[in-house]
Amino acid sequence: MRVLRLAFGPERAHVLGIGVVGGALMMSFGFEGPILAKGVAAASLGVDRPDLAFGLLAVTVAYVWAGISTVRRVTENLLLAVMLGRRRLIEATLRSDLATMEQAGAENVLAALTVAPDDIIATAPLLARGFRTGCYMIGTLVVLASLAWQLFAVMAGVLTIIFSTLALNHRAVMGALSEAGELEAGMRQDLRALVLGFKELRLNAARRRLFLTGLHQRANAMLAAIAYANRRQTIGFVLQASATLAASGMCIFVVPNLLPDVDPVTMITAAVLMSNISFGLVRDIPLLARGEAAIGDMERLHTALRPMNAVPPPTIVEQPPLKTPTREAAPLSLDGVCYQYPDQDDERGFAFGPVSIDFPPGTITFVLGGNSTGKTTLMKLLAGLYTPSLGDIRLGGVDFSPAELRESVSAIFADPYIFDRLYGWSDADPDMVNALLDDMGIGGRLRFVEGRFTSIDLSTGQRKRLAWVVAMIEARPILLLDQWAADQDPEFREHFYRVMLPALRAAGRTVIAVTNDDRYYDAADRLIRFDDGLVVG
Q1: 279-312 pLDDT, tens per residue?
Q2: How far apart are CA 486 and CA 312, in angstroms?
Q3: What are phi and psi of 108, to 5 degrees?
C-alpha cells in the first residue's frame, strides 16, 4: 500500500529505526501472552514466580517505548510526505496551463490540496497500531512455532484466509471510494453554487426545484458508492471473524486432543492471541482505505495537471533562456494561430482560428462578437494562458512562447480574482498606490497599508477597478481587457472610454479590449469582429 511507503519513509535511517522498534515490539508482544498465561497458572497453584513478574515488567517497558517510537516515527514520516506531496501538487498547479486546469476542475484541485492531506494524516495512529499488530502477529507465530507446530499451522492458515479476503476486497473497496470521491467533488461544486447563487435560486421556484433534485441525485449516488464499499468491508469482516472463531475453537477443543502433552492454558492463550491479532487486522486495515484513496487522488491529479499542449523536453540538458520581457512598445501579431478545445461527451470541442492579426503599438483595438465566438479565447491566447495548437504569436517580430508572453502582458478578465497584496511589487510606493485607488473612486473603501490592501470585499465593478490599479503598477506594454466596463456605472464608463483609454494610447501602450458598448466604438482605432472562432470583419 502506498500509505505504508509514505509512513515508513525511504531513508535508510528510518528503515533501521523501524526495524529496531519492530524487533522490540515482536519481543514484547510475542512473549506477553505466554508470560501472562504462565503467571496465571503459577498463581492458581500458589507458586511464587518473581521471574515472571520481572519478565512482564520488561515486556511492558519495551511495549511502551516501542509504541511511542512507532507513533512518533510514523507521524513524522506522514507529515513530511504530505508536506512534500502538497508542495509537488502546488508546483504542478502553477506549472500547468489554463486549459489543463479547467479540465481538471478547480474543486478537484482544491480538495486534493485541503481534504486529501487531512485524510492521509488521519491514518497515522491507525498505521502505528497496525504496525504493532503486525509485530504482535510475527512474535506470536514465533512463540507458537516453538511450542507446537500444529498451533503455528492453525494460526498461519487463519492469517492466510484473512489476508486473502482483504486482498480480494481491496480493489472493489478502492474503486467505490474513488467513485465516491468524484461524486463528493460534484457535491462541493453544488454546495458552492447553493451559497453563491442563493439569490438566483430564491428568485425561481422551478430552478430551485431542479437544482435540489440534482443535488439529491448526486448525494444518493455518493451514499450508494460508500454503502457498496462498506458492504464489501462487512463481508470481509464476517469471513475474517468466522475464521478467527473457528481457529479459536480448534485451539481450545481440537488441538488439545491431538496434543495431550501441551498445557491447556497455552491452548487458551493461543486462542486469545488469535482473536487479538485477527480482530486488530479487521479493525485497522479497512480504515486505511480512505488514506490510500486520498494518496491516489493526489497522484492522479498531479499527473492530470501536466499541460495539455506541453512539448516533450529535448534530450539535451540545457534549456534556452527565456527572452527578456519587453517593457517598450512593440507590435504584437498572430500568424495563423489556431486553438482546439478538447471534446466533451462525444461533442466536438470549439475550434478557434486560423487567425492572423497585427496589433500596432500605442493603439486601441476593440474585439466584438456574440457569445462563444472566440473573443475570450483570443484574450487567453494573447495572455499566454492557452498554448496555440498551430501558428505563432510574435512580439516585436520575435516568436514568444506563452511563458515569455505572460511576462509582457497585463490582463483583466471578466471575473478577476484580487489578492490582498501586491505580489512582485512589495516595494510599491504606498502614496502612489493610494493615489491610484483614489483615481478609481475606491479610495474610500480600501487603502494600501504595510504592503497589502485593507479590504478586498468589493463589488464586481470595484474589483475590476482594483485590478486596473494593479495593471497600472505592473506597467506592461500590452493591456488586455475582457468586458471591463460592463459592471461600471454610466459616469465611470464614460470616464473609462473618454479619459482612461486615451491616456494609455498617449503613453504608447497597446490596448486590446472585448466590449459590446457600441456607443463608444469611436474610442477605438480599430474594430475586429469574431464569429465561430474566425475574424469576420
Answers
A1: 656 555 655 666 677 777 777 777 877 765 544 4
A2: 41
A3: -65, -40
Distance, CA of 454 to CA of 387 (rounded, Å): 36
What's domain 2-304's superfamily in CATH?
ABC transporter type 1, transmembrane domain (1.20.1560.10)
CB pairs under 8 A, 24+ apart, for 183-188?
183/218, 183/221, 183/222, 183/225, 184/111, 184/222, 185/105, 185/107, 185/108, 185/111, 186/107, 186/218, 187/215, 187/218, 187/219, 187/222, 188/107, 188/111
Q: Where are the domains of the chain?
A: 2-304, 332-418+458-535
The single-letter DSSP state of residue 286 is G
Residue range 37-88, pLDDT digits in tens: 566 556 666 666 676 677 667 766 766 776 677 677 777 777 777 888 888 8
- The answer to whether 331 and 361 are in contact (CB under 8 A) is yes
Q: Rounded to an integer, what distance in angstroms lies between the CA atom of residue 112 and that of residue 88?
A: 12
Question: Which architecture does CATH list for 332-418+458-535?
Answer: 3-Layer(aba) Sandwich (3.40)
Partner residues linked to 526 by β-bridges: 365
Give the DSSP letter string of 34-92: HHHHHHHHHHHTT---HHHHHHHHHHHHHHHHHHHHHHHHHHHHHHHHHHHHHHHHHHH
SS (H, E, C) 431-470: HHHHHHHHHCCCCCCCCEECCEECCCCCCHHHHHHHHHHH
